[in-house]
């Protein structure tokens, strides 16, 4: 019965002599690389869904604020500049949040 270390050493010697990894080592390396790429893809998909959700929520918020601004303007036209300033400020803040979500 041979010693496990001697088998490993002889296998390493064969790899060095042929210049190619053994099939089982190559399979493990390929499987490891595929797992890594698959894991990265899952993370990217989750990020995509997060950005989509945040963007959708922000758009709905801006839509509601724009409608509210229009209603306020009908009730009190003199507040036009103030309403616009508030809605534009919130819209800018939401746009920044969406952008930051996309970068993270």
Major sheet details: none
What overall form do the CA principal axes indicate?
rod-shaped
* Helix residue percentage: over 70%
Give helix and strand order, one letter per element, not per position. HHH
What does the radius of gyration come to?
Answer: 30 Å
Number of helical segments with 4 or more residues: 3
**Uncertain ranges:** none
Please render the helix and strand layout as text:
Blueprint: H1 4-18, H2 23-75, H3 80-103
Helix pairs in contact: 2-3
List keywords for this structure.
single chain; 104 residues; mainly alpha; 0% strand
Offer a concise description of the structure.
By secondary structure, the protein is mainly alpha-helical. It contains 3 helices and no strands.
Q: Could you describe the 3D structure shown?
A:
- The protein is mainly alpha-helical.
- It has one domain.
- It is built from three helices and no strands.
- Helix 2 (23-75) packs antiparallel against helix 3.
- It is rod-shaped.
């Amino acid at each position: 019965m041979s010693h496990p270390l001697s088998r490993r050493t002889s296998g390493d010697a064969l790899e060095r002599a042929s210049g190619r990894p053994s099939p089982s080592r190559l399979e493990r390396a390929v499987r490891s690389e595929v797992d890594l790429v698959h894991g990265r893809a899952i993370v990217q998909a989750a990020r995509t869904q997060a950005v989509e959700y945040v963007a959708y929520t922000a758009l709905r918020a801006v839509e509601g604020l724009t409608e509210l601004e229009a209603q306020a303007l009908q009730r009190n036209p003199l507040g036009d500049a103030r309403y616009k300033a508030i809605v534009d400020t919130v819209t800018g803040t939401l746009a920044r949040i969406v952008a930051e979500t996309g970068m993270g």
